[in-house]
Amino acid sequence: MLRAGIVGLPNVGKSTLFNAITRTRKAEAANYPFCTIEPNVGIVTVPDARLAELQRIARTNVVIPAAIEFVDIAGLVAGASQGEGLGNRFLTHVREVDAIVQVVRCFDHADVHHVSGSVDPVRDIDVINTELMLADLESVRKRRERVGKDAKRGDKSAAAEDLVLERVEAGLDGGKPALALALSEDERVFTRPLFLLSDKPTIFACNVAEADLAGADANPHVIAVRDYVRTHLACDAVVISAQIESDLVDLSAEEAQAYLEALGVAESGIGALIRATYRLLGLQTYFTAGEKEVRAWTIHAGDTAPRAAGAIHSDFERGFIKAETVAYDDLVACGSVAAAREKGLYRMEGKDYVVADGDVLLFKFNV
């Protein structure tokens, strides 16, 4: 299962957000730096309205959504790359996740301490990214020392790698994270083994106050973050209120919806954040649907039918014969599998078929 790490400066709402996402109280959320030391880990289901429609069609009581793993990582401070705060431990934990959700504080509150003394989310983003890039610079320079010796001896592969790493080093040294560097797929072959921290897919979560959620689009901190991450980092930002999400944890679905409506909000930000993180990891969903259960299966975008079958069991991939396939929209429009078959919308696909998001599949295999 792929993992998304929740990172940020101390006291920006990381642990409160983690508790809300995972609907637990696992992470200590306190008004002082480093209340999180060891990472908290939680499995999170991916909200998907399509499951309810498939449940209605399949007439089953069992629904199993897709899931991803979130990790609440200790707060970072300036100097982390040199061991400040929980620096080395923090960087190790970041290295172990597949994507980053960077929480930035977009609210003012006199009683909630900020490690820098004031609220400035763009500055906070720069602090985090600078530490990640400094750690990456060290990794790149160490690697260049090794491959440089081979390049001088005439090793063409080493010379090609050194040229790419030289560009990466220059970009990092100029304040550009690896994620924002224009590298081809062939060039990224040389950077992937380094597991660069600033190369991880990243989304930014703007944490606003409860009273600001309904009008978050006008929040100057949110506006600044969205503009900055879009133009400088080619990343997206979503708005959440960690405190509101925390309050919703103990409410029923009906109570939670009534609470949000009273605040002037159609839905909480958690669902949007989870879905955005799912996409950020390059994931998509296909479904199986029958009387026994309706289930969402997680695959990578671009996976073929056999690879998708392997998400269920390795035997399905190894003995793959064909996949009976219908698009979600077609199935819902028809109202039943039988009707979809009658209209010729149910089709057979072979080993080269690239599964589309929302496909409803039934695999034939022989082992």
Structural features, described:
This protein has 14 helices and 12 strands. It has helices spanning about 15-20, 50-60, 85-95, 120-150, 155-175, 185-190, 220-235, 240-250, 255-265, 270-280, 305-310, 315-320, 330-335, 335-340; strands at about 5, 40-45, 65, 65-70, 100-105, 200-205, 235-240, 285-290, 295-300, 320-325, 345-350, 360-365. About 40% of the residues are buried. The model is unreliable at about 25-35 and about 85 (pLDDT under 50).
Number of helices: 14
Strand arrangement, major sheet: 2-4-1-5-6-7
- Class of secondary structure makeup: alpha/beta
Helix content: 40-55%
Low-confidence stretches: 27-37, 83-87
Q: How far do the termini sit from each other?
A: 26 Å
Query: What average pLDDT do the residues reach?
Result: 87
Let me know the largest β-sheet. 6 strands, mixed
Taken from the alpha-carbon principal axes, the silhouette is flat
The total beta strand count reads 12
Note the beta-strand portion.
15-25%
Radius of gyration over alpha carbons?
A: 23 Å
One letter per element, helices H and strands E, the order comes to EHEHEEHEHHHEHEHHHEEHHEHHEE
Topology:
Elements: E1 3-7, H1 14-22, E2 40-45, H2 50-58, E3 63-64, E4 67-72, H3 87-95, E5 99-105, H4 121-152, H5 156-173, H6 185-191, E6 202-207, H7 220-233, E7 236-240, H8 242-248, H9 253-263, H10 269-280, E8 283-289, E9 294-300, H11 305-310, H12 314-318, E10 320-326, H13 328-334, H14 337-342, E11 347-349, E12 360-365
Parallel strand pairs: 1-4, 1-5, 3-9, 5-6, 6-7
Antiparallel strand pairs: 2-4, 8-9, 10-11, 10-12
